[in-house]
Amino acid sequence: MNKGKVYLIGAGPGDPELLTLKGKRCLGEADVIVGDYLADKRILKFAKPDAEYIYVGKKVGCHTMKQHEISELLAEKGREGKIVARLKGGDPFVFGRGGEEIEVLRRAGVAFEEIPGVTSAIAALAYAGIPVTHRGVAASFTVITGHEDPTKDKSSIHWDKLACGSDTLIFLMSVGHTELIASQLMKYGRSPDTPAAFVRWGTRPYQETYTTTLENAAKDVVEKGIEPPAVFVVGNVVKLREEMRWFDNRPLFGKRIIITRSRTQASRLANALEERSACCIEIPTISIEAPSDDYAGMDDGIEHLDEYNWLIFTSQNGVNYFFNRLFEKGKDLRSVGHLKLAAIGPATAKELKKYGLNNDCVPKQYKAEDLVEEMRPLVKAGDKILIPRAKVARSVLPEGLESMGCDVNVVEAYTTHPDKGGKEKLLEILENKKVDIVTFTSSSTVYNFMDQLDGRTELLKGVQLACIGPITADSCRKYHLEPDVVSDVYTIDGLVDAIEKGVH
Question: Which residues are catalytic?
């Protein structure tokens, strides 16, 4: 029996968080993903790593595949027994041609399911501060295609009834037909001074909103260079934009920010910045990997934990790599029950909390010098201290503790390596002035970023540099680059707050 199945998934209007929970689950089960032009690729992070991705995007003047070819492709993959996720921007049944694809699947005997998505007809306007209905302003709305089947002899849109038959009119795929739409609406009674707006790339950090009137809409398309994809809305609800806008008036809206953290860590910083409407570009400059010496040093420390008095962590990575190895060795949290614990900052302390462990020492300032001072009254000569951390790190902490008479054992919990996979993309972005801010969360991100520039520091002219603390900032200064933003709180949240306050 053929186990193949095709899920037609509404991928939403762009913001990956607007993908439904069911859509996310089915995407994660798929063997093959067939993606549209408007299906934001950021949601592919929910897919299986080995899933096959096939792009079939269609936009004005450029069709990767014809519609019948896409439908046959879905049927073919389904007949092969594959689970297929057909990602369609917005909702598959709102001018998404989902019905046409289902007709082919049914004839081919392939199982299918349609998973509704959030349509841009509502979401794009919401992100622009334009509600499709509002008490006392609009009690109805209509969604209309702005791009009818070109093979039809006669329009199926009843302009005479539509023009004044609904309070809010929303046209999808309409930019190239604005003049026709506006003229028809005015011909059948819609007032020329009716407020109107275009929302381009709705719900994304590079969203653009243009307000106009029905009479001036077609002219503005030309004069302002408005291009697809855009939603065109006509109605008095447009007047509510200034009062209700919330997305595109944030301080970081539209700011293009490069994140240089490792691929596994980048998402937390990206999410925090995108919450403030920034446009994040992840270009990892480092990768975090297991120790190069096969855990020899850390294994020895784990085997002799009963001899230690303190366990000190200087990063979240150190915490996770240490405990993962501890568990792999067949041990559990009882092995550290007798130890006192120290963390260099709240993020590291929070990571320890995930293992149910409280800290005995967290400095008020989150750097090695401050941790040394905080521990001075807590340790005594002869105390044995284990520090699992990166292979390459500053010597301030172990040397400071040793000066107090402590026996310090620094073991390699993980190592960082340069990640040059994004070098070509990085140079292209900088050369074309497509970035506003570069973030650095450690000295290693600075060093590896600069290594990829091959000495071309002139590419950073006009680009703001944001560093997580003074140590990282000093690393920038070694290249004669003065950071524009240095966070006083050396955490991701602190860096994001500092960027919001310090950018211009």
Answer: 36, 58, 173
